[in-house]
Amino acid sequence: MNITDFSLDTITLAGSLESKLDAAANAGFTQITLWAKDLSGHPDGFDAALHEVRQSGLRVNAIQVMRDYEGLSGQLHHHKVETVKTMLRLCEAVGAERLMICSTTSAHASGDIDHISADLRKVAMLATPLGVRVAYEALSWGRHVSDFALSWEIVQRADRANLGVCIDSFHVLANCSLNGTDFEALATIPGECIAFVQLSDFLWRDVHTPQERIDTARHLRVFPGEGVHSAELARMVRMIDRAGYRGDWSFEVFNDDYVHMPVDAVARRAWESAAWVASQSERRSLPRSIVHSARP
């Protein structure tokens, strides 16, 4: 594991797309995780957004996020398929390596595992000629899929080389807090079947209800090394690393306080967190000065 394996998610930063890209690059990051709205919602238009991304020199590792996609039928399914095609075109335009899909919360979605697997297989097939990988993430408040073990079963059933699971540490930790679920099962997922890893922590142990999980996830996450689950996060990183995962790690940190701070200050915190996470790995390559700057 090298510190260049880490990226900052634009959702963590305030300001314009250009200021976010500049802050990430100035902090030392060489890659970025973008949201579709960073491109489609740019005040100067889509082409201006593409220009800013290309000028930044940052590699785009993923586009966030396709929601409430799987398990639908009829016109709802058709609408979501057309939407996912548009998002795949965004990935192609900006050179994004992955499209993120999170498990559905829709009341209209079927919980049938074969139905869900078939829908994800369809996305993976659409993504194949574009060279895009699909990362399926289990939201801890997902209607039918709320833990990584089930998302892994679904990915196996879909059986596409460019479809893998996304491991989000917040949702893993929230499930552990809620029902005592251990994450030892992470060790059963081969590293090459993990499409992406998103890291964050939070500042208390218990998130009992779905609404508590949603509120914490969307407003109160912190960087790894700043929260109360550092021991669990370090063990999680080592397990994923031992499984053979050699992909990218992104800090997806929704925090209302961070978006009131200067973007450069937040990006520096993220860089220190990257050094802390990398120092927890048994396979690391870090300059001594960077390791020493990490939080204890």
Folded structure, characterized:
The protein has 296 residues and is an alpha/beta fold. It has a single domain (3-293), classed as Divalent-metal-dependent TIM barrel enzymes (TIM Barrel, Alpha-Beta Barrel). It is built from 11 helices and 8 strands. The chain has helices spanning 17-27, 36-40, 46-56, 74-94, 113-127, 148-158, 169-179, 210-219, 230-242, 263-280, 288-293; strands spanning 6-9, 31-35, 59-66, 98-102, 133-137, 163-168, 194-199, 249-251. Strands 1-2-3-4-5-6-7-8 form an 8-stranded parallel β-barrel, surrounded by 6 helices. Helix 1 (17-27) packs parallel to helix 3 (46-56). It is globular, with a radius of gyration of 18 Å.
Give a quick set of tags describing it.
single chain; 296 residues; alpha/beta; TIM Barrel; eight-stranded parallel barrel; 11 helices; 8 strands; globular; disordered C terminus
Helix content: 40-55%
Please summarize the sheet with the most strands: 8 strands, parallel, barrel
Number of separate domains? 1
Specify the CATH homologous superfamily: Divalent-metal-dependent TIM barrel enzymes
The level 1 CATH classification is: Alpha Beta
N/C terminus separation: 19 Å
What strand order characterises the main sheet? 1-2-3-4-5-6-7-8
Percentage beta strand: 5-15%
Judged by helices, strands and strand pairing, the structural class is alpha/beta
Order of helices and strands: EHEHHEHEHEHEHEHHEHH
Overall pLDDT? 93
Task: Tell me the CATH architecture.
Answer: Alpha-Beta Barrel
Q: Count every helix, treating DSSP H or I runs of 4 or more residues as helices.
A: 11
Examine the coordinates and then state which fold CATH places here, giving the name of the CATH topology.
TIM Barrel
Instruction: Write down the Rg.
Output: 18 Å
Assembly type of the shown chains? single chain
Count the beta strands: 8
